[in-house]
Specification:
The structure holds 2 protein chains of 2 kinds.
Chain A lengths: L2 H31 L6 H27 L8 H10 L7 H20 L3 H34 L1 E5 L3 E6 L6 E4 L4 E6 H4 L2 H16 L2 H15 L3 H24 L5 H14 L12 E2 L13 H14 L6 H22 L7 H23 L3
Parallel strand pairs in A: 2-4
Antiparallel strand pairs in A: 1-2, 3-4, 3-5
Chain B lengths: L10 H13 L4 H7 L8 H14 L2 E6 L2 E6 L3 H17 L5 H7 L6 H14 L6
Antiparallel strand pairs in B: 1-2
Helix pairs in contact in B: 1-2, 1-3, 2-3
The chains are: A alpha+beta, B mainly alpha.
InterPro entries (chain B): BlaI_family, WH-like_DNA-bd_sf, WH_DNA-bd_sf
Family (chain B): Belongs to the BlaI transcriptional regulatory family.
GO molecular function (chain B): DNA binding
Chain lengths: 370, 130
């Protein structure tokens, strides 16, 4: 693999994440505008579909890009075709210049030949290292919480651990098991344990823990991508809202008591200092700057109140259909943004027209009487 | 009244402990002699700090003739390990670096927000036992 290919791949990944965020945002917008704002399961399922697409893309992209259909959906070729058909008012030579700009820019980044490219590389590396260190610290803190705790209960796939080193209940996963970690101080309160455990097990059941781990693992390469932070914050929030609803839908759970407990945990731990946050799903959620200035807890409480007043109905089939359509759009978009292996018919035609234009220009100069 | 046991030493206490670790043990006068030129303090100040260190459990005091003789109760190596642990806690514990902390902070609920949320719970969510 050459440096050019690595740089091209890295840029493509960033573009695909940005595209996936835009597609997800657009689908979310359509749902909200069509009065389905409270369809948290459907919206969350769509978010999971996007994350799943991003996760499998590096594996399937080589096959998709080389498939016979890839050339027909390539974004650059589509624009070139429009230029050739005369639908875009731009000369062939100018279009060629624009197309070569991209490869020139990529070459600058690959060789770090300009100051802007060096700054870009340095910024990316610094963010990558900082985020990786942050993850390592969090892994260490989670390990510490698990090691210092006592296993209260074991099931086939899950371990319930009580530890005094955390103050907010959270769930996470290792290679083989899921872990629900509860503060030692909470263990004496039976109702609190039932609520925290139920909430965290619901997170595990609906795949939030796996999504959280996956997002954490890809975060170092996407740490500077606003699309990534938009996607992860939306998914986290929808996960919490869906989790609250699913938990309360189970018979025998009191919404008032649940909301009060949530507030109590959030209040007593708003200044919690030792929470491992990168790989876990804390009970009371977390704040992402710029994207969620509002209180996440307040939104959750309002959603519980709204649902109690007027239960939202969601069709599983509709959600699955939307997720499939969205996954298709993301994959199609990813292929359209990929660099084709060879020049397409359109690119060859454009190059020919540009060369003819150039020759014509030279001939005109030669024929001119000086 | 017994002073609250603290895991870590203040800067001044650390200066005195370093002097004490150097000489292995001694009276207030011995410790003063082991302090560097620019660290010199009055006899009473040194005696006070050594009393604090005794209360904190970093030294043990025994009477020899009429003077108190202090010996380290904590090994230098143990304290170094403890300081490293404390440093990592300070760096990565409650207040990590700005970028990282901002990305993952728990919610900082103000009193007004708590009041507002409590009001929503009390007025809009009814008690329902199934």
């Amino acid at each position: 693999m050459t440096v050019d290919q690595i740089v091209g791949g890295a840029i493509w990944i960033q573009l695909v994440i940005l595209l996936a965020a835009c597609v997800f945002g657009a689908f979310e917008g359509i749902l909200v505008l069509s009065g389905r704002r409270r369809s948290f399961y459907t919206r969350r399922r769509m978010g999971m579909a996007v994350i799943a697409c991003l996760a499998v893309l590096p594996l399937v992209a080589p096959y998709l890009v080389t498939s016979p259909y890839a050339a027909s959906v390539n974004a650059t070729d589509a624009i070139v075709a429009q230029v050739l058909n005369g639908n875009l008012d731009i000369s062939a030579s100018r279009m060629m210049q624009i197309l070569t700009l991209k490869s020139e820019w990529m070459s600058q980044v690959a060789t770090a030949s300009s100051t802007a490219a060096q700054v870009l590389i340095a910024g990316f590396l610094a963010a990558f290292i900082a985020r990786t260190c942050y993850l390592v610290v969090n892994i260490a803190r989670i390990c510490n919480a698990l090691k210092s705790g006592r296993v209260v209960q074991r099931t086939r796939r899950c371990r319930l651990v009580a530890t005094s080193s955390v103050s907010v209940p959270f769930s996470t996963r290792g290679l083989w098991y899921y872990y629900v970690v509860l503060p030692e101080a909470l263990i004496a309160d039976r109702a609190a344990v039932q609520m925290a455990l139920g909430h965290e097990l619901q997170h595990i059941r609906q795949g939030d823990v796996d999504a959280e781990v996956l997002l954490s693992l890809i975060s170092p390469i996407a740490v500077l991508n606003p699309g990534f932070w938009f996607l992860s914050s939306r998914l986290r929030k929808l996960g919490e809202l869906a989790c609250d609803r699913a938990y309360l839908a189970r018979k025998g759970f009191d919404a008032h008591g649940y909301a009060l407990r949530l507030l109590e945990v959030a209040r007593s731990t708003s200044a919690a200092k030792q929470q491992p946050t990168a790989f876990g799903v804390p009970l009371v959620g977390r704040r992402v700057p710029f994207l969620s200035r509002r209180s996440m807890l307040k939104d959750r409480i309002v959603a519980i109140a709204d649902h109690q007043a007027e239960p939202a109905k969601e069709a599983v089939v509709f959600g699955a259909f939307l997720s499939l359509v969205m996954a298709g759009v993301v994959l199609l978009g990813a292929v359209s943004l990929a660099e084709p292996e060879d020049w397409s018919h359109e690119r060859i035609m454009l190059s020919t027209v540009a060369n003819l234009d150039r020759l014509n220009h030279l001939n005109t100069l030669a024929q001119r009487s000086w | 009244m017994a002073r609250r046991r603290s895991e870590m030493l203040t800067d001044v206490e650390l200066e005195f402990m370093i002097a004490l670790w150097k000489i292995g043990g001694g009276s207030v006068r011995d410790i003063m002699g082991a302090l560097k030129e620019d660290q010199q303090r009055a006899y009473t100040s040194v005696a006070t700090v050594m009393k604090i260190l005794d209360d904190k459990g970093f030294v043990t005091a025994s009477r020899k003739d009429r003077a108190l003789v202090y010996t380290p109760a904590v090994e230098k190596r143990d304290y170094e390990g403890r300081s490293l642990k404390n440093l990592s806690k300070t760096l990565f514990g409650g207040t990590p670096t700005a970028l990282v902390a901002r990305l993952v902070d728990n919610e900082d609920l103000t009193d007004e927000m708590i009041k507002e949320i409590k009001e929503i719970i009390d007025t809009r969510i009814r008690k329902d036992d199934g």
